[in-house]
Design a protein that fits this description.
Elements (H helix, E strand, L loop, with lengths): L4 H25 L9 H18 L9 H9 L5 H25 L2 H6 L13 H19 L14 H22 L5 H11 L5 H22 L9
Helix pairs in contact: 1-2, 1-4, 2-7, 3-4, 3-9, 4-8, 6-7, 6-9, 8-9
């Protein structure tokens, strides 16, 4: 059953909140020198948080990522109104999570983590960073779009789908974090920028993931055509 607009908005808000808050909490903890937490643990935390958030709200077919929502629209698997509601909910949830991360955790960790904002490596050009972010988000989008929601197969995302998507996000962070800080999700990267009032790299971390997701949507539509409803 398709969720009502209000339920869709709330579901996206809640899913993105859980994803950003749980993953961000581990990222802050990693800034404590005594924690022993490194990139692997932070990446796993984000992947598992994404799996938990999207799996728990699978019936609402949440996406928790504006880039994915826009890609689904481009692929003809969503509507403009549904996409607008999804992106609004995602941004609201991410900002709420960033505000709580700032307010609940030690200021020292928040400052050390730059408010969980991604930072591009100094020896990387913007073109290189853009390409890296686009490719990583495109790969994540291809995995996420494998969840079939067309009329011929009324299934929505289930726990297994959520786990695979979370695993893809984990791999993406492991691959790109040392170079771009690991964005892959405009809501996740914009939220701490809004909270801290620092928008360095904002254009990159919006346009690159969305561009990569759109390319993935085109490739998915060409390589995995949607099935037509059975005629008999």
């Amino acid at each position: 059953m398709t969720p009502t607009p209000v339920r869709a908005l709330v579901a996206e808000c809640l899913a993105t909140f859980l994803f950003v808050f749980l993953g961000g909490a581990v990222a802050l903890h990693a800034r404590n020198p005594e924690s022993g937490i490194g990139l692997l643990e932070v990446a796993l935390a984000h992947g598992l948080a994404l799996a938990v958030a999207t799996g728990a709200l699978a019936a609402a077919a949440v996406q928790a990522n504006p880039a994915l929502s826009i890609a689904l629209l481009a692929a003809g698997r969503s509507t403009p109104s549904r996409t607008a509601l999804a992106v609004a909910g995602q941004l609201l949830g991410a900002v709420a999570a960033a505000l709580l991360l700032k307010g609940l955790f030690p200021a020292m960790l928040w400052e050390a983590a730059r408010g969980t904002r991604p930072v591009v490596a100094l020896d990387l050009s913007m073109a290189q960073a853009f390409t890296i972010e686009a490719i990583a988000t495109g790969a994540l989008t291809l995995v996420a779009m494998a969840r079939r929601t067309d009329a011929a197969d009324r299934r929505v995302a289930n726990g297994g789908d959520a786990l695979v998507t979370g695993a893809a996000f984990t791999v993406g962070l492991l691959a790109v974090t040392p170079f771009t800080g690991g964005g892959l999700n405009p809501a996740r990267t914009l939220a701490p920028m809004i909270v801290t009032g620092t928008f360095e790299g904002a254009l990159l971390f919006v346009t690159a993931p969305v561009s990569g997701a759109l390319v993935a949507a085109v490739l998915h539509r060409l390589l995995v055509p949607r099935e037509s409803p059975p005629t008999s």
